[in-house]
């Protein structure tokens, strides 16, 4: 099922350079992927020892190093995963780190296997159970859960018929106070003990399982109506004891699951409520494990050693990361509160705005996962269409909703907020995303290399797009008329100096002749040329010059790679999730724009700062996480491409779509930006290209990019609000 490796291009010195490329690439570009080794292990003919001489190394050292940094061989488990990994290196495709297929169980590490265990495995001596995480469990859940079991046990003893369940609750009270190093087993009661009237025969027997006297609750009842008493005790337990304990365990389960690192406690509580508490009390055995003691028989239901596992951030449910699963209920809460409480009787507008903004993060994750799943299971044409259509749907939904609201209210602030968000996305993806990835990746790797040729394509498109986007702004600065709100004569001389405030270039002089006759046609021309340049870039990188990326699929078979692909989401399921997520995204964007007005009017913070930070970067958080994960695996090329592709899409797709939207639905959005946006964007692009010239970087260069980004944020923070807001 694994695609065969592409054969290397034959050349005269291929056999001589092949081994050198393998050695240099393995040492320099040891890029390791989560599904296999995303390394530079090229399958070339083996070099005879005689040819591997020092003179040969000196002669071809520069040539070898130049070739190995632009060649990447992907090792995947199946064809679908290989297609997804290959799409990561294609220009215009969403870069996605998570798996779209289920990984074979035998290929996973022991740490990951432990995350998905059912807490029913008895291990040998693993040291003391007194750890910080276990103590945290005691402080958060253990003491009150144990106290609740004691109270339920007392209540069951009072009912008399529920005495067996009372003894079970007493044993479980001790277990849940400190469950670590203890085990709950389901045991089989011997038939001789179940027979009525066999009291004397079973009174003194011992159990091989327990190695001691039979527990008291195993001793048979010698009443003629034992069945009646058992049924009465079960009814009393299900009516009085079980509901309270099930509710308590449900609360513990939800709380521990939301904390992520306490998911073992959530599993413990869920299995207790679903299975342990529904078993007959005589079949449940609670015992402490000794250092050298291993149960010989009986099913182990629960056996927990640690309450906290920091690796649960890797946990996934049906391919969905646990954090995205935990944030999904937030979307439902946001929609219910936002549309039911329309008059702000329960919550205020800032709270609703915050909820709507936070809900965008999991929806962005689901949209990205759906796009990656569809692209990996489809041909190139379908993948390109899906990425181009839904790749920027998160940002466009918010921008269009804000422009519609601003047009209805006649408020220019919404258009300025959209411009600030566009600029913030551009600056953040050019400076902050690659800079943060360099810093975090540089902590693990001293120096990281990337494909400078592929990065150069994105940089060239970025230069073109920034120049095209800000061309109408520069045109208006040259030919527009400067108009000021108020001016004061400083020297008291009519010919002296004047101090003016609230100055701007007026494009509407003489009934807007300059704007409608010159600026607007320029805007439409730029909006047509930028998408055309984007399509040319796609054709250049994916068709005529695809060798720039030089992606190969390795034919090596690692353990488990012979399995067929088991996708998490089929194409139809991914399409349904994509459409539902887009619909929910539209609703959340509508709520965010509906309740942002009080924040803009009452906040002392500049509207520029709100746009370039919160509104610009929150939707990009899933992309930032993907970039960090790629950087930690020494795959900085994808980390850089994530930021560059988003910035290019902002200029070449999102802005032209907004201009096209204003043709059919007139708004206050014009492609004329403030001086601050122009200078910040151009400086960021120039600095980014200077850093990426040599094809290698370290954490210091990443720190420079991050620091420059925070300096620009400080400028936006202290800048006055846009005119008219």
From TrEMBL:
Location(s), subcellular: Endomembrane system
Thylakoid listed as a keyword: no
Q: Where is the Sodium/calcium exchanger membrane region domain?
A: 351-470, 574-716
UniProt keyword Transmembrane helix present: yes
The membrane-topology field of this record reads: Multi-pass membrane protein
User: Which GO cellular component terms are attached?
Assistant: endomembrane system; vacuolar membrane
**Name of the protein described by the UniProt record:** VNX1 protein
Q: Which organism is it from?
A: Calonectris borealis (Cory's shearwater)
